[in-house]
């Protein structure tokens, strides 16, 4: 039996319950929803904040990193006191302090071809808070095969982008067929990021997650939204499934074991 909202919850979520299109049943649905945030960095921080604040009942966080001083410029769920601590533990403490309605599931592990499918299991939506192409491909592949919506986001310097990949539409490999070569985009070198841009994109990602969970409005399917903070411009570009996509343009791949990856997690021919 679904439990009604108690008086404390009605008060806590009162502002969203005042929206005509959100009823008590929708809030109860959020409280029973499960979202996995892949990455507890700049993007993940904003996603985590707003999903927890909105009352998403279970938030999973996967990240094998530890908090560094250089993270604090943009990764706002972590503090000076958290330096050296696992990011998943720091983020979990933030959620616990913000909303006791939320159960946090921490996964202090690296996402690999061997772990990604089990990490996504039992979640309704997975969110891209990643900082490298290779792992993003892995999460995209596992999400598509599990028919789980994948809310993509990425940032670089003063720019960011996001979209929602859902079953039946294009996937991340339709947008970017393969990871750039190491010579083009070194994966082990830090890149410049304007401090508030991950917050802008991450907040939009959280909004898209909530829309997916509530079946509210029109999720950002089949379009890529690009944001340039330098001149505050937003551009939306249509996306279409790629008939030659090795993942969603073919019936040859049924599970992760059918995919042969090279050392940068690109699908090998």
Task: Describe, in plain words, how this protein is organized in 3D.
- With 269 residues, this protein is of the alpha/beta class.
- The protein has an 8-stranded mixed β-sheet with strand order 3-2-1-4-5-6-7-8, with helices on both faces.
- The longest helix is centred in the last third of the chain and has 18 residues, at 197-214.
- It has helices at 7-12, 14-17, 24-31, 42-54, 87-98, 116-120, 133-145, 172-175, 197-214, and strands at 34-38, 58-62, 103-107, 125-128, 150-156, 159-165, 223-228, 233-238.
- It has a single domain (9-258), classed as NAD(P)-binding Rossmann-like Domain (Rossmann fold, 3-Layer(aba) Sandwich), CATH 3.40.50.720.
- Pfam families: ThiF (PF00899).
- Residues 13-246 form the THIF-type NAD/FAD binding fold domain.
- This is UBA/THIF-type NAD/FAD binding protein.
Name the poorly predicted regions.
none
Number of helices: 9
Describe the oligomeric state of these chains in a short phrase.
single chain
The CATH architecture name reads 3-Layer(aba) Sandwich
Please, what is the average pLDDT?
Answer: 92
Content of β-strand: 15-25%
What is the alpha-carbon Rg in Å? 18 Å
How many domains comprise the coordinates? 1
The rough form would be described as globular
Helix content: 25-40%
Write the CATH homologous superfamily: NAD(P)-binding Rossmann-like Domain
CATH top level label:
Alpha Beta
| Strand line-up in the sheet with most strands | 3-2-1-4-5-6-7-8
């Amino acid at each position: 039996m679904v439990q009604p909202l108690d008086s404390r919850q009605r008060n806590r979520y009162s502002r969203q319950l005042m929206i005509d299109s959100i009823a008590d049943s929708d809030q109860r649905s959020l409280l029973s929803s499960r979202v996995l945030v892949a990455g507890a960095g700049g993007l993940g921080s904003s996603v985590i904040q707003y999903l927890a604040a909105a009352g998403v009942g279970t938030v999973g966080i996967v990240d094998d990193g530890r908090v560094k001083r250089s993270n604090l410029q943009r990764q706002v769920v972590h503090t000076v006191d958290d330096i050296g601590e696992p990011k998943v533990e720091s983020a979990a403490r933030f959620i616990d302090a913000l909303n006791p309605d939320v159960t946090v599931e921490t996964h202090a592990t690296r996402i690999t071809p061997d772990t990604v499918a089990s990490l996504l299991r039992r979640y309704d939506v997975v969110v891209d808070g990643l900082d490298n192409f290779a792992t993003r491909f892995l999460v995209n592949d596992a999400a598509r095969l599990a028919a789980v919506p994948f809310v993509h986001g990425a940032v670089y310097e003063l720019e960011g982008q996001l979209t929602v990949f859902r079953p039946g539409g294009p996937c991340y490999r339709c947008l970017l067929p393969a990871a750039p070569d190491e010579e083009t985009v070194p994966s082990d070198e830090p890149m410049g990021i304007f401090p508030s841009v991950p917050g802008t994109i991450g907040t939009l990602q959280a909004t898209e997650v909530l829309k997916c969970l509530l079946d509210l409005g029109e999720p950002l399917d089949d379009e890529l939204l690009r944001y340039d903070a330098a001149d505050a411009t937003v551009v939306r570009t249509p996306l279409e499934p790629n008939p030659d996509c090795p993942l969603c343009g073919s019936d040859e791949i049924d599970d992760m074991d059918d995919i042969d990856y090279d050392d940068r997690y690109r699908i090998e021919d």
